[in-house]
Amino acid sequence: MKERLGGMHSARCVMTSVDFADIEALQSSGEWEEAGRLLALEAQGLEAAGADFLVLCTNTMHRVAREVREAVGIPLLHIGDVASREVLNAGFGAVALLGTAFTMEQPFYRNFISAYGIDVLVPPGPERASIHRIIYEELVLGVISDASRDELAEIIRDLVARGAQGVILGCTELELLIGQEDSPVPVFPTTRLHAVAAVDEALRWHTREIRPWVLRARGQCCPGRGTQGCSPRRCP
Question: Please, are residues 22 and 38 in contact by the beta-carbon 8 Å criterion?
């Protein structure tokens, strides 16, 4: 935000962080409904705190994006939308998808990208299991291994040979290990892309009329009406 606006600007945001041990246990046991309920409650808290839109900072947990969206009245900036638009902007029609086993194997993420007319390639079963292990047994714990980087680079080369024109790093931790230098084709780092898209969206809100809480403080929420008819979050 400071880079975009200069001076002393910073992002105005509210955030909640959940215990990943709880989330991982729900993932492993397949309790997606409970995971969706948990994140939906967190989203409602953010909405009540004044958030204009939501960013779910994970790829795998977009498995419950619908539940989160339905629990609130503000939009969710879906990481799959962001990644898909970047792929299309690059002019590609086929990409490799790397991520957790849930992201690579379950349809929620692959189908989302495919809906944009993009072919999605995933590694074979043994390679998917290896990537999943690297994420949960190494990257989540802060372990960065050159051997694992070499293994992922080889998996990427195999997917490129199958026709992938780019690689979606569909797990936020993968960017700790894999960069553009590890791939012969463009890499789409979803963590960074999602963050930049969130800044873009926040700036769209920032550059609208003077923020309603400023106007309410002046007793001018709605011109000619004082504070009459003001919503708790924005002018009608």
Answer: yes
Please name which of 25, 1, 27 lies closest in space to residue 13, comparing C-alpha atoms: 1
Average pLDDT over residues 56-71: 97
The three-state secondary structure class of 119 is strand
Catalytic residues: 58, 171
Residue 164 tokens, joined: 């992938």
Q: Cβ–Cβ contacts within 10 Å for residue 114, how many?
A: 13
The pTM score is 0.84
CA distances from 133 to 15, 80, 90, 152, 193 (A): 29, 23, 30, 12, 24
Instruction: Determine the Cα–Cα distance for residues 184 and 165; give it in Å rounded to an integer.
Output: 9
Asked if residues 128 and 104 have their Cβ atoms less than 8 Å apart, the reply is: yes
What is the average pLDDT across 183-207? 92
Query: What stretches of the chain show up as alpha helix (H) in DSSP?
Result: 2-5, 20-28, 32-48, 65-71, 79-89, 101-105, 107-114, 125-137, 146-161, 190-206, 212-217
Sheet holding 166-169, edge to edge: 119-121, 94-98, 166-169, 187-189
The H-or-E segment that residue 179 falls in is none
Is residue 206 predicted with pLDDT exceeding 80? no
CA distance 187 to 87: 10
Quickly count: other Cβ atoms within 10 Å of residue 7's Cβ. Answer: 6
pLDDT tens-place string over residues 19-60: 999 999 999 999 999 999 999 999 999 999 999 999 999 999
163 and 96 Cβ atoms separated by less than 8 Å: no
